[in-house]
């Protein structure tokens, strides 16, 4: 096989038995890699299990372009039944860990069972050892990475690990690599914790074999130039993803005060990438073979967080701990971000849960006594930081919030559910469907719950086009017309992009569908056609939906929170608009070939070579 190593490591933590299995090339062609291949591996699992039980299978998986000379291709996926949502769970991260796994001769790792003590897995060029991790248990993710490298005497070891949040089975726990790259969503870090699996350390020296190396290198060089010279590439390099704060605010896309507002110009600007560049930025960081370098390096030289240095906040983090909580204190946001990296927490869910708690506090549903004496007032930066610590430690009121806003709202009661912004149990990302109609469909139907990267459809509504796959006229951003079709096509395409191991910012950096086809052809040697590639993405998306159907998901679960559907914003870029999700969902189901309840029809499954029992 080319593009793949053709090897999957299977680890039974109950007995510490390890075995390497061959990856069937026909299966690889059918699903590519990433989440699509993981869905195939997990589809036969009993989805009625408790996600935190040993029966939950955990899959780390790469794509055929991961670890090749192609730029912006360092992604890996981690999949399991989500402890947060109780449905399909999927998290992604970039950095250096995914390419290192491929260099070690593996496409992925499948974990079953639970170790009888804390352990970590060491992989060196396909040689596998399970090592004691009791001395690492309780340490934060950054300490763990540093300690493993020192223990093994190799600074080039790449480590993916959990912090205390994962150990304590926080349902919003992340997996951290490279001191701050996070496979964060769906609480996948808690699955590692439930298995007593502290870390996976990888060192590889092999090259990924590709079918047409020189042609691939030439194409990679062209794409490096394209990404560097693109407007988006330059902007992301200069200001990071938080550089989008001001333009997003102009559209009314930034949620403010727990989705009550979308207009807070001065406050949003104070936590933007531009202000970061002027104040606390010391440099940029990049994933392997990335010519853009959107990662931020920061240092705080004054104030209560003086001395903090490390990875800086991205847009989602800045918005979640900033405008969503009515907080304009950038150093405090940087501190909250650092704590999440150390505890191993999803910054989106953590910020959303704190904003939820702020509104519950404002409405008198919870008291200062219940919040451990912390005043949860809007904009209180110190309270945000303290609550992140509480959540990371599962301490006091933080123990409740670590369950996610859906469960916390049920526990609090008194109508708290109306302040909990989630879809299928996953907290909403920091983009408002009242600003771009397609978000209403993309969020509602994303297989892991509310998700901004499964298919960032607002890119299309802002002018990005992909004519070769039929995405050349997005229409008005407030119009429901055509948004079901637009979302379906872009979801299928993005499924391929993710499964291949490509960062989605490559698309914003002027990569197009014909580039993806050419890259896959050169890497794998397959005579892949564009329509076949799109069918592969559609197959993966539908397989994940079938898994969710097993978990009880249907049309009733594809809806936005009530406030977003019924309460328009009185000012700003989205003034007066409410998304017509009902119409868009109906159109979307028709485009998908699903029935009126959102279930894939027999005809569609036959077309995709799927069956309901897969």
Primary descriptors:
614 residues, alpha+beta, Aldehyde Ferredoxin Oxidoreductase,  A, domain 1, Aldehyde Ferredoxin Oxidoreductase Protein, subunit A, domain 2, 6-stranded mixed beta sheet
Tally the beta strands. 17
- CA radius of gyration is 22 Å
| Overall domain count | 3
What kind of oligomer do you see? single chain
Give a structural overview.
- With 614 residues, the chain is an alpha+beta fold.
- It has three domains: 7-203, Aldehyde Ferredoxin Oxidoreductase,  A, domain 1, CATH 3.60.9; 241-420, Aldehyde Ferredoxin Oxidoreductase Protein, subunit A, domain 2 (Orthogonal Bundle), CATH 1.10.569; 437-509 and 529-607, Aldehyde Ferredoxin Oxidoreductase Protein, subunit A, domain 3.
- The protein contains 26 helices and 17 strands.
- It has a six-stranded mixed beta sheet with strand order 2-1-6-3-4-5, sandwiched between helices. The protein has a six-stranded mixed beta sheet with strand order 8-7-12-9-10-11. It has a three-stranded antiparallel beta sheet with strand order 13-14-15.
- A hairpin with a 4-residue loop joins strand 1 (7-12) and strand 2 (17-22).
- The radius of gyration is 22 Å and the shape is globular.
- It starts with 6 loop residues before the first strand and ends in a 7-residue tail after the last helix.
